[in-house]
Write a structure and sequence with these properties.
- By secondary structure, the protein is an alpha/beta fold.
- The chain has a single domain, classed as Thiamin diphosphate (ThDP)-binding fold, Pyr/PP domains (Rossmann fold).
- 41% of the residues lie in helices and 10% in strands.
- The chain has helices at 19-23, 43-68, 83-90, 106-112, 116-123, 157-171, 189-200, 220-223, 248-263, 292-302, 304-315, 320-343; strands at 98-101, 147-150, 177-182, 205-211, 214-215, 218-219, 240-244, 269-274.
- β7, α9 and β8 (269-274) form a beta-alpha-beta unit.
- α2 (43-68) crosses α4, α3 (83-90) packs across α9 and α6 (157-171) runs parallel beside α7.
- The longest helix is centred in the first third of the chain and has 26 residues, at 43-68.
Amino acid sequence: MTVSNDGVGGGVSGARPSFASEAANLAAHQPDDPVPDIAGFTPEEERHAYREMLLIRRFEEKAGQLYGMGFIGGFCHLYIGQEAVVVGMQMAIGEGDQVITGYRDHGHMLACGMDPKGVMAELTGRRGGLSRGKGGSMHMFSVEEGFYGGHGIVGASVPLGTGLAFANRYKGNDRVCLTYFGDGAANQGQVYESFNMAKLWKLPVLYIIENNQYGMGTRIDRASSTTDLSQRGRSFDIPGEQVDGMDVRAVKAAGDKAVQWARDGNGPYILEMLTYRYRGHSMSDPAKYRSKEEVQKIRQENDPIERVRIRLVASGHFSEEALKDIDKEVRAIVNEAAEFSQSDPEPDPSELTTDVLIEN
């Protein structure tokens, strides 16, 4: 599978630890750690994971193209490289469970089942967008699909997700809230206030840290005094673990365990997903703080989609031709969404005053 290298920066200035020194092999958490649990996928589960990740990858590639053509304005943060995290976690939850995240959110929307046409039309500010063209990349929402928004303020998803979990506890249901945030948000004060309340009240919330190694343009080891983010809840007695976020099976296995922990009334759990973004922080970021070689090494050795593709072919259940058909189907869906996002009318000016207040 080939993917363009658009957005990948060039040289690196100044002395700093190489990527290989800390996370070149994202599949191995630390040399002395035990082998991580891997979910046993059926051939159909492997196919499902492959298709869902491929849909996110192709959608984001197309969004990047539309941004470059001027159809998408403002901020646009792509999820390319991190697809296994949200797909694996969606396979671990059930109907009624909730998802909330930050601004790198298109992949989460698609994994939750939101219409690709509606997502893409929102990116281009059209009437058919999921927020009627008024929210853009970082502000979409779907109660029907259990998605409670992407949020542009760094770390804002954490207290909001904790609040969703509080509502679940208050109502006495068995729902669990998946609350995503990145390594760059892990040092926010509101994160730790949320940890404290979640543990105090044993709220059914999973804190999923998508550690893609760079908060905007700064490597994690240059911004955080401790880089094992799974242990950030230790002072609150919140259990946590690091997970190979480039292997959808490892994500699913960790997700199954953590979801059951929270659903059984044990309170919060932290999953640090060791992953990697191939593009810059946003489309306006040339990513010159890392080398092309660093990115290419991950692409070649640890791409989450390629790992599944290899397993599918090796299993004998799917031929290369069958997987090409899946790619063809996904591309058709994405192309249709792109066409709709360019031809759908813009919102009427009267929409400026709607959706401001809820009127009973």
